[in-house]
Amino acid sequence: MLWIGLDDTDTLESPGTGRLARQFAAAFALDYRVLGVTRHQLLIDPRVPCTKNNSSAAIALDAELEPAALLEQARAWMLDQHQPGSDPGLCIAHQVPPEIIEYGRRVQRHLVTQADARSLAAAYDIPLVGLGGDEGGVIGALAAVGLAASGDDGRYVWVGNSRELSGLQRVPTLLAAGVHGVQTADGQPVTDGLVWSDKLRPARRGGKPIAVVEWTGAYWLPLKLD
Predict the structure, then answer these.
(1) Residue 168 reports pLDDT greater than 90
(2) Rounded CA gap, 7 and 146, in Å?
(3) Are 126 and 103 in contact (CB under 8 A)?
(4) Which of 115, 104, 128, 96 is nearest to 55 (CA)?
(5) What secondary structure, in 3-state letters, does the chain show?
(6) What value does the mean pLDDT of the chain take?
(7) Which candidate, 148, 214, 151, places its Cα nearest to that of 183?
(8) Which domains does the chain have, with CATH numbers?
(9) Residue 15 above 90 pLDDT?
(10) Distance in angstroms (rounded) separating the CA atoms of residues 184 and 215
(11) Which of 84, 94, 127, 157 has its CA at 20 to 30 Å from residue 75's CA atom?
C-alpha cells in the first residue's frame, strides 16, 4: 500500500482539495491501481486558514514503489495544477508508524505548525514537500496519510464506481460498485432493501469503505460521516 496525502489549502477560485485528489487519482489510475480517495476533517478554528471546512485528502495506491520513486511524478502533477494563492502540500508514505497516525488525530484537535509536521516526517524518512505559497499544506498532507492509514477515519470521495450510482439501488448493486459493506450506525449489517445512492460517500471503517445508513421508513439513507 502506498499513501499519498494532499492538502491544497485552496482558494475560493480553486477546485478544492477533494476534487484535486480525485483528478490526481484519475491521472495516476492509468499506471497504478487506485484503491480509493478519502477525505479527512481537520481542526475547525478561526486561526486555521481555509476557505470552508479545512479538510485534507489521501489516495491509496496498490503499488510496490518506494515513495521517492513516485515523488517527482506527483510533484510535477501538483505543480501543474497549482492555483495562485494556494499553499499545497504533498506527502507520500509506504510504511506509516503509529506516531504519524497520532499526529493526524492531533491535527484534528489542536493547532500544529509546519515545523511539527516537517520534523516528524523527517524522523521517519517520509517525503513531505510544500509546493507553493507559504507551504502550509504540509500540515494537512501528513495528517491525511496518518488518518487514512489508521483505517477508521474519514469518508471515501472516490471508490470503485460508487460515484456513478444514483437514485434507489439495492444493496448488492452498492457492493458491486466498490462498497465493502452496508451497516447501521450501531454496526448491524444491512443486506437487503433499497439504498438512496446519490452522493454516496462511504465511511472508512476497518480499512474498508462502509456505507453507514439509517432507515427512513421506505428506504435506507446513507449518513455522511467523518
Answers:
(1) yes
(2) 13
(3) no
(4) 104
(5) CEEEEEECCCCCCCCCHHHHHHHHHHHHCCCCEEEEEEEEECCCCCCCCCCCCCEEEEEEEECCCCHHHHHHHHHHHHHHHCCCCCCCEEEEECCCCHHHHHHHHHHHHCCCCHHHHHHHHHHCCCCEEECCCCCCHHHHHHHHHHHHHHCCCCEEEECCCHHHCCCEEEHHHHHHCCCCEEEECCCCECCCCEEECCCCCCEEECCEEEEEEEECCCCEEECCCC
(6) 91
(7) 214
(8) 2-156 (3.30.70.2200), 160-222 (no CATH)
(9) no
(10) 8
(11) 157
C-alpha cell at 85: 494563492
CB-based contacts of 36: which residues, under 8 Å, 6+ apart?
Answer: 59, 60, 156, 158, 159, 160, 178, 204, 209
CA dihedral over 49, 50, 52, 53, signed as positive or negative:
negative
Cα–Cα distance for residue pair 148/132, rounded to 1 Å = 24
Among the listed residues 180, 172, 169, the one whose alpha carbon sits nearest the alpha carbon of residue 202: 180
- Supply 32's cell numbers: 497504478
Q: How far apart are CA 34 and CA 60, in angstroms?
A: 6
Locate 182 and state its grid cell. Answer: 452496508
pLDDT of residue 8: 81
Greatest distance between any 2 Cα atoms in the chain: 53
pTM greater than 0.90 (yes/no): yes
Q: Grid coordinates standing for 73?
A: 511524478
Unique residue bearing C-alpha cell 491521472: 27
At which residue does the C-alpha cell 487519482 appear?
25
